[in-house]
Amino acid sequence: MPSKNIVESSNDTTKAFVSPEYIRNRFASILSDMYKNEVPLYGELLNLVHEINHKILSESTTIKEQLENTGEITRLNMERHGAIRLGKPYELFTMRRLFKVMGMFPVGYYDLATAGVPVHSTAFRAIENTTLNQAPFRVFTSLLRLDLIDDNELRERVETILEDRQIFTKKALELILKSEKDGGLNKEDAETFVQEAIETFRWHDTATVDHKMYETLLQQHRLIADVVAFKGPHINHLTPRSLDIDQVQASMEARNIPPKDTIEGPPTRKCPILLRQTSFKALTEKVTFKNEVGNGKIGEHKARFGEIEQRGAALTQKGLDLYNELLGKTRKAIGGSPNAKNASEYNELLLENFKNFPDDYATLQSDKLAYFHYFTTAKAKNISKEKAYTKEDINELLADGYLTIEPMVYEDFLPVSAAGIFASNLGTDDAKRNYNETANQSLFEKDLGAPVYELQKWYKDMQEETIQKCLLELNA
Ligand code: OOG
Ligand code: NI
After folding, report:
1. Which atom of ligand 1 is nearest to the CA of 82?
2. Which residue of 80, 116, 183, 271 is surrounded by the most CB atoms within 10 Å?
3. What digits encode the pLDDT tens for the residues 62-114?
């Protein structure tokens, strides 16, 4: 539930704007209800995650206090991310405008072609710490790279199919424009907007192509079929945040939720870093394909699945380089992506290799491997005012107990993990596709109609803000 202060402040609800956080929470909660209805296993997974989170918070005061200090405690049970896959530049451009109404902005650029998936992506999310804690919903958004379809004739046919589709309702487009012009939406418009926007994310059990075309698309890449054969970019998963993903993974099987073979990301650690994710396989759903006279053959499609994640500390570029080195070394040793056969070997090796990644917050801070929030302590009130404290003094102030730190949570995604999630749900046969093309961030940003926020800069700025606040307090 959104807290009161983010609804409206005026009594005149016909004129007053509701906050983007209010709209975002409303949208996320309706989307979650819709997905629970459509994919019941998602509801099961939510219950499991909430149970385990509840248990951990009652058992570990350290984790509870950490989440209270950073403000994350308020968002834990409403925290979700989802994912959609778009087909053409207009859809990405308009999706940016739609998400902006809800206070979500594109952060980061992810190239997945190098991992065998013909898309590039960004994540739409809030960009202020307070608004993230009020409404943490985010959406991993991919755009199909038509330039990676090597068959010219097929590429042109795909372009024609996509040209004709409109994934947004007329009313949603009108309200996006209204919000842009007026600078916001009142409560009534916001409600209409949310209901209309949801339509774009809904599953359709009728395809826009015939079965033969579907098979042709499937042969190019399962993902291409998922994007091109349907009316719109159905939400393909929603992911709750767990405080202990190992416990959830171990309990999934008992609840008839079959997990993927390995958890993506770093291994189990005392001080979690970045992001660990696991998922259950996509459902097989009935689809009615077109024929010359209308609806024809009934077939199946696999796209929608469930995922959980555990988030840890955001890493600096130095930390990220070390992470990529250790992960890369592990994958190389087992010959690429892990599978059912070598899962336990992979897990052991990952754990072994990550012994080289410090696992206490003090070292992660002093070695500049992770980002932190800085706070002044009670002792800071009595600090000597003989000198003006600067950034140079930070480590000494920490050592002397005038300052304390909490890890800054990683709010984004990991390209290797994302590719692993894509692969596990699309079928492993596609995981081996090789695309020689490289990342194309400038084309992505041209299609998006705006540059994406730079990942590293975002964390650096936020850390700097908390340091400056501490210095102001100490020098007051
Ligand atoms: C997106 C996969 C990426 C994640 O959590 O890394 C993702 C997709 O399957 O469309 O959601
Ligand atoms: Ni995901």
Report:
1. 11
2. 80
3. 999 999 999 889 888 888 999 999 999 999 999 999 999 999 999 999 999 88
Pairing verdict, β 80-86 and 138-144: parallel
Task: Pick the atom of ligand 1 nearest to 413's CA.
Answer: 6
Distance 212 CA to ligand 2 centre (A): 30
Of ligand 1's atoms, which has the minimum distance to the CA of residue 422? 9
Report in angstroms the alpha-carbon separations of 273 from 4, 26, 73, 125, 240: 32, 30, 18, 20, 17
Q: Which amino acid is at 468?
A: Q
- In degrees rounded to 5, what are phi and psi of residue 342? -105, 20
Separation of alpha carbons 98 and 102, rounded Å:
7
Q: Is 378 exposed, middle or buried (0-12, 13-18, 19+ CB in 10 A)?
A: exposed
Closest by Cα among 136, 26, 61, 56 to 409: 136
Q: From 469, 335, 319, 332, select the one nearest 403 (Cα to Cα).
A: 469
Structural contact between residues 204 and 287, judged by C-beta atoms closer than 8 angstroms: no
Q: Cα separation of 58 and 64, whole Å?
A: 8
| Listed residue (417, 407, 241, 421) closest to 315, CA to CA | 407
Q: How far apart are CA 36 and CA 34, in angstroms?
A: 5
Ligand 1 probe mutation, 119, 139, 140, 227, most atoms within 8 A of CB: 140
Other beta carbons within 10 Å of 205: 11
Mutate to test the pocket of ligand 1, among 226, 237, 310 (most ligand atoms within 8 A of CB): 237
The one-letter amino acid code at 464 reads E
Please give the angle made by the CA atoms of 178, 238 and 325, to the nearest 5 degrees: 110
Q: Tell which residue, 24, 197, 17, 274, has the closest CA to residue 126.
A: 24
Find the 185 Cα to ligand 1 centroid distance in Å: 30
pTM here is 0.93
The phi, psi pair for 138, rounded to 5°, reads: -145, 160
Whether 362 has a pLDDT exceeding 90, the answer reads: yes
